[in-house]
Amino acid sequence: MTDLLRSWVETANTPDTDFPLNNLPYGVFSIDGGKASCGAAIGDKILNLSALEASGRINFDGSLCTGSWNAFMALGKQEWARLREELSTFLVEGSEPQPAYLVAMADAALHMPFAVSEFTDFYAGKHHATNVGTMFRGAENALPPNWLSIPIGYNGRASSVVVSGTPIKRPHGQLKGPNDELPHFAPSSRFDIELEMGAIVGTASQGPITVAEAYDNLFGYVLLNDWSARDIQAWEYQPLGPFQAKATATSISPWIVTAAALEPFRVSTPKRERPQLNYLNEPGPMLYDIALEVALTPNGGNENIICRTNYREMYYSAAQQLAHHTTSGCPMRVGDLLGSGTISGPGKDNRGSLLEISWGGKEPFTLDSGEARSFLEDGDTVTLRGAAEGDGYRVGFGECVGTVMSA
Ligand code: CA
After folding, report:
1. 3-state secondary structure of 170
2. Which of 172, 168, 217 has the alpha carbon at shortest distance from 194?
3. Would you say 191 and 377 are in contact if contact means Cβ atoms under 8 Å apart?
4. Which of 404, 364, 407 is nearest to 381 (CA)?
5. Residues 41-64 pLDDT 10s
6. Distance from the CA of 342 to the center of ligand 1, in angstroms?
7. If we measure between CA atoms, which residue out of 400, 16, 388 comes closest to residue 223?
8. What is 10-111's CATH superfamily?
């Protein structure tokens, strides 16, 4: 485990900042409605990389002046490493301070850090799949027969992915209660969240790739909230899986934490209960130890932490998911986003969706105000947070926030 790397940006040297020099996550920001610029978070500041490249201090083919990270990602892994090295040298304690290239994060608006090419969402958390399966099919048949062999997923909508802070409008849809003969059309009354990590493909591939190649092709990670309308889902999901229930919005955090920054926090996926097909075997640990939490804040109320869990609970890593995604020959593109699947842990306090926390609405939970809850109400704000904990520092993701608006 490495130590805190000290920077001349003083606020980056505290143990509780999400953004020490060890992290250097990438985002896109603007000031006062101005032009969108690429930046790196450092302490409570943003290093303006568009300005750095425009001034000729760094040179990445102009990709950092585009206001999006896709062009930079397409330059490839060697350039990813070169930028990280040059920024580390620029910001390290002992280098000449250059505050002219910094802006206060508090003054900046944060935008989508990259254009999502395609969005695939997986179902790779075993505790989540077991909980949901138990609710719908009983404990005996909780995991579908394929689950321990295949990273199950579906092709989602890139157009629905939004950056943290975007308001989320409660969807309408076809709803049908257990005793209704026919469906009716109404706002969802079982609107939910899913705590996930998003993995970003930074290198395109054509045809099948190995798990090791997949690991190398992943540029970085974000927090991801897959907003889900459970009542719409229950009626529509057979036989082809989720559709409108998952198409309202998926929120991501604004800072891409790179695979390079997460390197010290690699862990293995859990022990297999069934022999795994060879093509899914990992040559080394490819999951990460990232502590995660979900906060629910009702309109005008206090923040309630409703879940604490860890990314290491996943049964399949993003590298395994990506390798599986390519087995058919499916081409992958720069900017493809892979949702991990809901990350629940073993205990009641580790459940990453309200569906699980309230056990399908049968066991409402209580907020600090005394109010009972099963699913989201209008005005609720949901905040995801995550960080890998080092020795005296943390590699954090910032926040992924969304507030529910009325239908
Ligand atoms: Ca999901």
Report:
1. coil
2. 168
3. no
4. 404
5. 999 999 999 999 999 999 999 999
6. 6
7. 400
8. Fumarylacetoacetase, N-terminal domain (2.30.30.230)
